[in-house]
Design brief:
CATH architecture of the largest domain: 3-Layer(aba) Sandwich
Strand order of the largest sheet: 3-4-2-1-7-8-9
CATH class of the largest domain: Alpha Beta
Oligomer: single chain
Strand content: 15-25%
CATH superfamily of the largest domain: Methylesterase CheB, C-terminal domain
Number of strands: 13
CATH topology of the largest domain: Rossmann fold
Structural class: alpha/beta
Radius of gyration: 25 Å
Distance between the termini: 44 Å
């Protein structure tokens, strides 16, 4: 049964994951009773065109009241709210909100946006849980939660279906708790009965980045408050990137797109691959055009031009073959 939250306790539980996280979450919420004295919110990476079945799936696996997040809904104890495709799920002082703000780590919804907004508004009351998934979304959000006085829980990488996200989090900073998914539910039952600590000041970068997500208009100078300009370009909009002052290596452009180092490297690799395939297509098309011009020149008995066109076509075709071999054999390396 949904109930009001006691503002004195650690009772805002935000959970994030990607590949393999639904199974982990199912194990967690099985151990949470219907009168669980905290609000639980879950973000999982979802395709923009995806119709989410999360509420229906999870409702069969927990005594919590399960609902899809709605803009403006209040936070209530004993309730599990799930994300919506193509919308960030963020928190304000009393409510949850859905926003189509800039993508973070190439994702919307993104884990970092939920964690950061929770830290911004609820500070020591927040318990952030990071589950299975690829790359490193959630890493910056965990950092924000810790700096604002909240607790962090990371699924043991050995227990995760995909270890990247929990392992990257543990490589960058020490979590308050590391546990198997089946133990996290019991752990949360203990934590949410604890009083929250005195609230620390919220760092400027956490405030500013939360406001970017909900659509506050920024200028290029806004980024100077939280980072330093780099020579890198944003993979989403090609704008300049700033390196954010944080204990996590990450970047943000002035319209709000954000990346941890690993996700930036992955996005850059996608752009590079796209450029390589485009270059290969261009070489193949040019070779074909030159071969056609050679054929027409021979038909017109212009042998010198025909030979020149044919030689150029052969050279470009060889370049295309070498480029294709490179594309097919190169190794993917992420930070």
């Amino acid at each position: 049964m949904a109930q009001q939250l006691d503002w004195r306790n650690r009772n805002i539980v935000v959970i994030g994951g990607s590949a393999g996280s639904l199974d982990a979450l199912s194990q967690i919420v099985r151990h949470l009773p219907g009168d669980f004295p905290a609000a639980v919110l879950f973000v999982q990476h979802l395709p923009a065109t995806h119709t989410s079945a999360l509420p229906d799936i999870l409702a069969q696996r927990t005594a919590l009241t399960v609902r899809e997040a709605t803009d403006g809904a209040s936070l209530t104890a004993g309730t599990l709210s799930t994300c919506v495709p193509d919308y960030h799920l963020v928190l304000s002082e009393a409510n949850m909100h859905l926003t189509r703000g800039p993508r973070e780590n190439h994702s919307r919804p993104a884990i970092d946006t939920l964690f950061r907004s929770a830290a911004r508004h609820y500070r020591g009351r927040v318990v952030a849980v990071l589950l299975s998934g690829y790359l490193s979304d959630g890493l910056a959000g965990l950092s924000a939660v810790r700096r604002c006085g909240g607790l962090t829980v990371v699924q043991d990488p050995a227990d995760a279906s995909v270890a990247d996200m929990p392992q990257n989090a543990l490589d960058r900073h020490e979590a308050d708790f590391v546990a198997d998914a089946r133990r996290i539910g019991d752990l949360l039952r203990e934590i949410v009965t604890q009083p929250a600590p005195s609230d620390p000041d919220v760092p400027d970068d956490v405030i500013l980045e939360t406001e970017m997500t909900v659509g506050r208009r920024m200028t290029i100078r806004s980024e100077d408050r939280i980072g330093e300009l780099t020579p890198f370009a944003c993979p989403d909009c090609s704008g300049n990137l700033w390196r954010v002052h944080d204990d996590v290596l990450r970047f943000r452009c002035h319209v709000g797109h954000a990346y941890t180092a690993a996700d930036f490297a992955a996005a850059e690799q996608e752009k590079l691959e796209e450029a390589l395939w485009t270059a290969l297509r261009g070489l193949r098309e040019r070779a074909e055009l030159l071969a056609t011009m050679a054929s027409d020149a021979r038909a017109a008995k212009r042998s010198a031009s025909a030979d020149r066109f044919a030689a150029n076509a052969s050279e470009i075709e060889e370049q295309a073959n070498r480029l294709q071999d490179f594309i097919m054999t190169r190794t993917s390396v992420y930070a």
